[in-house]
Write a structure and sequence with these properties.
This protein is an alpha/beta fold. The chain has helices at about 10-15, 20-25, 40-45, 45-50, 60-80, 90, 115-125, 140-145, 165-180, 190-210, 210-220, 235-250, 285-300, 315-320, 335-350, and strands at about 30, 35-40, 55-60, 85, 100-110, 130-135, 145-150, 225-230, 255-260, 275-280, 305-310, 320-325. It is globular and about 55 Å long. Bound molecules: 2-deoxy-2-amino glucitol-6-phosphate. This is Glutamine--fructose-6-phosphate aminotransferase [isomerizing].
């Protein structure tokens, strides 16, 4: 097992650090930047289906559901196709409206999640085209889907999903870009610009990982907190949900993720000097608004841990701690902002002596209801 961990103390840490290469493996052979081509057989072979679809319904659970939420923002922005994101467990039992003009995308690392399997079964019965985004090759969902794309993240052993999330977002971004170009919503120059930016992401993930020691020091300060709040807006709202889920799962600290602007509709009542609030405050998209949310937290004595872009000055003046990530397109920023949140939950869990790779009560894949 030590050999499998490749010198890391835990699989989760290894998998966090594998993300630069995992993302490269995800787009290798698919994204040809110089030629300006995205090749995805599962989409190419059914392009008419995609171009004539009325909407996309994404079904998933847990972290994969969070990747689905990010994808909703990306698909609607780039491809202008309406997207709904559903918890597979709710979808399967609520008599959903599904037609043969719908495309159901099932996202699942393991490809074995019982609720996601049942959701695609239902979708198929109603005539929808089912596209699977799975990591495990040959898994049940990948076999039961009409078409699909593997994430190629490599084995994910830690129960807390890390590289599965970033590679799912990568696959879904490629799909959205491809479809946006095909249906005329993404101009040739925007398309190229997105490809070039996506190609820079692995190096930028590497740069984000260099904050590890700094994040460890922050973790030491907050490891005994009873609660955490995570806030983000736009493309980074699902990242806030994912950050909170990671912390809950492996450190057993109660954490909630919220869209930053929703704070004043309830969670702000929780804020006092005992409450660490992790705020994603990167430059592009709603920056000023998030800064004003940070001011509100500060005036209630909340402790602010902000994820900012390199060179940020504004948030630095207000926050108790800042963690820097490189700048990128707003749409791609979840691939970077999620990295410090993974490290934060990892270090806190280690400091609390928790079983990081196999947290209590959790299984890697939930194959029963
Ligand atoms: C993630 O950290 C969790 N362990 C869990 O939420 C997981 O993402 C969920 O069970 C879905 O699994 P899947 O991607 O294999 O379908």
């Amino acid at each position: 097992e030590q050999i499998e961990k490749g010198g890391y103390e835990h699989f989760m840490l290894k998998e966090i650090h594998e993300q630069p290469n995992a993302v490269i493996d995800t787009y290798r052979g698919r994204m040809l930047v110089n030629e300006g081509i995205i090749r995805m057989a599962g989409v190419d072979d059914h392009i008419e289906k995609f171009l004539n679809a009325n909407r996309i319904i994404i079904v998933a659970c847990g972290t994969s559901w969070h990747a689905g939420l990010v994808a909703e923002y990306i698909f609607e922005d780039l491809a202008r196709i309406p997207v709904e994101v559903e918890y597979a467990s709710e979808f399967r039992y609520r008599n959903p409206i599904i037609t043969d003009k719908d495309i159901v995308i099932a996202i699942s690392q393991s490809g074995e999640t019982a609720d996601t399997r049942a959701a695609i079964q239902l979708a198929k019965e109603k005539g929808a085209f089912v596209f699977g985004v799975c990591n495990v090759v040959g898994s049940t969902i990948s076999r039961e889907s009409d078409a699909g794309a593997y994430t190629h993240a490599g084995p994910e052993i830690g129960v807390a999903s890390t590289k599965a999330f970033t590679t799912q977002i990568t696959v879904l971004t490629l799909m959205a870009l491809k479809l946006g170009k095909a249906n005329g919503n993404v101009s040739a120059s925007d398309y190229h610009m997105h490809l070039q930016e996506l190609a820079l992401i692995p190096e930028k993930i590497k740069a984000s990982l260099t904050s590890d020691a700094h994040i460890q020091a922050i973790s030491d300060i907050y490891k005994d907190s009873a609660n955490f709040l995570y806030l983000g807006r736009g493309f980074n709202f699902p990242v806030a949900l994912e950050g909170a889920l990671k912390l809950k799962e492996i450190s057993y600290i109660h954490a909630e993720g919220y869209p930053a602007a929703e704070m004043k509709h309830g969670p702000i009542a929780l804020i006092d000097e005992q409450m660490p609030v992790v705020v994603i405050a990167t430059k592009r998209g709603h920056y000023e608004k998030v800064v004003s949310n940070i001011q509100e937290i500060k005036s209630r004595s909340g402790k602010i841990i902000a994820i900012v872009n390199e060179g940020d000055v504004h948030v630095k003046e207000l926050a108790d701690h800042v963690i820097e990530v490189p700048d990128t397109l707003e749409l791609l920023s979840p691939l970077l902002t999620t990295i410090p949140l993974q490290l934060l939950s990892y270090h806190i869990a280690v400091m609390r002596d928790c079983n990081v790779d196999q947290p209590r009560n959790l299984a890697k894949s939930v194959t029963v209801e």
